[in-house]
Design a protein that fits this description.
216 residues, Rossmann fold, seven-stranded mixed sheet
């Protein structure tokens, strides 16, 4: 049986500025890790109540992130939901850092996913910047949002199976409130995975920025 670099990680933490960011950025990789028996935790820093489309209840994204992460196999007790106001993360930078430090102390993850350093969204930037402070002694991979990046460092690829991509699509389909957004569509999710896979000669992959890679 082949050995993957992912086998060296046991406890994984996904930092999602908003609900659905973690699924979009690394949903296929999350599924692969969970199939391998890894312990995956997911933190949503905002449920974006101010941005909920008309016709949906204010807490719809809380319900949807619970369904989406469960679809990927994340245990309910490993989902952590915080209540920072969307698009106001820079004003809460210190509190966000302190939350990350607390999670680092309690969970002791050996692999952390966060938005890439190239992401221009103010909330994503804050999570990426503070993650580099809170997890400076931990392997840190930055996931991509092609619509938020002027450029991206494809310094790490995780190859994925059809099952991994389908679970990512299934997870995104849990977000009925976001169904009109182009990035939530099956076609785009598969297209990006095909493109990244082509770069490393496989059918599907997710690309990451290797912000910090620690070999033990």
């Amino acid at each position: 049986m082949s050995i993957s670099a992912l086998d060296s990680f046991q406890k994984i933490l996904v930092l999602a500025p908003h609900t659905d960011d973690g699924e979009l950025g690394c949903g296929g990789t999350i599924n692969r890790l969970i199939k391998a028996g890894k312990e995956v935790h997911y933190v949503a820093f905002s449920t974006c109540e101010e941005s909920v489309p008309e016709g949906f209840e204010p807490d719809i994204l809380t319900k949807e992130v619970k369904a989406a992460t469960a679809t990927l196999g994340i245990a309910p007790e490993n989902l952590h939901i915080l209540d920072y106001k969307v698009r106001h993360f820079p004003a809460n930078r210190q509190e966000i850092l302190e939350d990350m430090v607390r999670l680092n102390r309690s969970l002791k993850p050996d692999l952390v996913f966060c938005p890439s350093t190239f992401d221009i969204h103010q909330d994503h930037q804050t999570i990426s910047q503070e993650a580099r402070r809170a997890y400076k002694n931990t392997t840190l991979l930055g996931y991509e949002f092609i619509w938020n990046n002027y450029q991206f460092a494809t310094s790490c690829f995780v190859t994925l199976s059809e099952d991994d991509i389908q679970k990512k699509v299934d997870a995104m389909e849990c977000y009925k409130s976001q169904s009109k957004r182009l990035y939530a569509k099956d076609k785009l999710i598969r297209g990006i995975a095909n493109y990244r896979g082509l770069q490393v000669q496989v059918e599907f992959a997710e690309a990451f920025e290797a912000i910090r890679w620690i070999i033990k």
